[in-house]
Amino acid sequence: MDGGTWQEWSLATQDDQVVGAFPPLPPGAFVEYWAEIDDPDGGMVEIPDGGEINPFSYYVGDVIPVHCDNFESSDGGWTHALVGGRPDAMADDWQWGAPQGLGGDPGAAASGSKVWGNDLGLDGGDGRYEDGKHNRLSSPVIDTAHYKGVFLTYDRWLGVEDATYDHATISVNDQPVWTNWANSDTGTDATQDKQWSPQSVDLQGLADHTPVTLSFDLDADPGLNFGGWTIDNVCLMAPATPDNRLGITDFVAQGNGSTGVDLSWTNPEHAPLDEVVVVRKRGDFPNGPHQGEVVFRDNDPQLGAAESYVDDSAGKKTGFYAVYASDGHNWLSWTVEGWNAEAAVTRGEPQTQAGGCDTGADPATGSAAWLLLGLLALRRRRRA
Questions:
Q1: Which residue has the higher pLDDT, 318 or 271?
Q2: Any domain includes 119
Q3: 380-381 and 30-33: which strand pairing?
Q4: Most buried pick, 1, 19, 230, 318, via CB within 10 A?
Q5: According to DSSP H, which parts of 230-273 are helical?
Q6: Which of 10-14, 326-330, 345-349 has the highest mean pLDDT?
Q7: How far apart are CA 352 and CA 255, in angstroms?
């Protein structure tokens, strides 16, 4: 993963349970963890099996679901293909359905009854991935809209040989973001989940406000093989920051043939939502809710509601409009033409270009606040 330094905390026994807690961690941290437990016979148990080469992981902070697939009612529109190797029977071994518990696979889904996986044991398979084959499972294109800091969460049951030989990889738009452990000295550190493992994967900005395709690959050599990928509850998540919660991306401002301008947008769908305003400015876009003239204010906005308003006071000049939402403490910080800002012309006046759109949070680079969050979001390794 990110190669951070492991830190240790003690666990305690409480009745028939082993309990422990991490210290407070900053929002945006990705934490990997595993536990060592001594048994009464002097042995030691690692949870999950494999310990530091195969840790659980989670994200610290409140999150917003961007897109989720639990694969119950359908296969989610995911597709699969043989990328490399001889195209013989079962060469492309990705299957959607109920896992059969063969070849080291789970005997049931993480939730519900269906998953995606390499050879689930359906149609006469033995549950193991094919030797000498490279197979890929790909999501449909997912639009992450205005969300920033997008990351992946999923439930995993993975059995794969050391990455010296076999490679299990997660990619975003063909850019790898995770691969299985490799022991360059011995090549003997296979990843073999013995339970469903919750995972959070930093996508390194590759899935921010852009159409993305997720891919799960398994590229095997001609030797030893295991159960391969089994995945469930695959989600793209975003940190519940004010800009992620309050973003508006479908604002329209259009002259109505008179001196008025028709305005429309959809309110944010994530609580809390306290206020929505539309601001008009001459000559250039406003750079926030307090610059320009407020032409519309809603002090009791409804989450996800489609809104419209006619600005009858627009006059004959080009107006530069922007809509902003507030949660009672923070306002949407950016102004992006085509998202929450648009220029409108009345009575056929020629369109005037703005001198520049002060975004407040450039969708390509992010604001200083986002850069700070990026520093806090470095993966942190923890060991209990």
A1: 271
A2: yes
A3: parallel
A4: 230
A5: 242-246
A6: 326-330
A7: 13
Strands (E), 145-292: 151-156, 159-160, 167-172, 175-179, 191-192, 197-202, 211-212, 214-219, 230-239, 252-255, 261-266, 275-282
Q: Cα angle vertex 382, ends 116, 227, to 5°?
A: 25
* CATH number of the domain to which 113 belongs: 2.60.120.200
Torsional class of 95: left (φ above 0), alpha (ψ -120 to 50), beta (otherwise): beta
Report whether pLDDT(1) > 60.
no
What is the domain-level CATH number for residue 327?
2.60.40.10
The distance from CA 224 to its chain's CA centroid, rounded to whole angstroms, is 33
Q: Which domain holds residue 345?
A: 246-352
For residues 31 and 381, the answer to whether their CB atoms sit within 8 Å is yes
Looking at every residue in the chain, the average pLDDT score rounds to: 89
Give me the residue label for tokens 């800091």. Answer: 149
Q: What is the pLDDT of residues 237-248, one digit of tens each?
A: 999 999 999 999
**Higher per-residue pLDDT: 362 or 239:** 239
Rounded CA separation 333/363 (Å)? 12
Bridge partners of 69, per DSSP, are 234
pLDDT at 127: 97
HSE toward the beta carbon, residue 364, CA cutoff 13 A: 0
Query: Does the global pTM surpass 0.90?
Result: no
The first and second tokens of residue 116, run together, are: 């995606």
- The number of distinct structural domains making up the chain is 2
What is the secondary structure of 145-163 as a DSSP string? TT--S-EEEEEE--EE--T
- Maximum average pLDDT range among 30-34, 41-45, 71-75, 253-257: 71-75
Q: Is the dihedral of CA 165, 170, 172, 178 positive or negative?
A: negative
Name beta bridge partners: 176: 171
- Residue 327 near residue 270, CB atoms below 8 Å: no
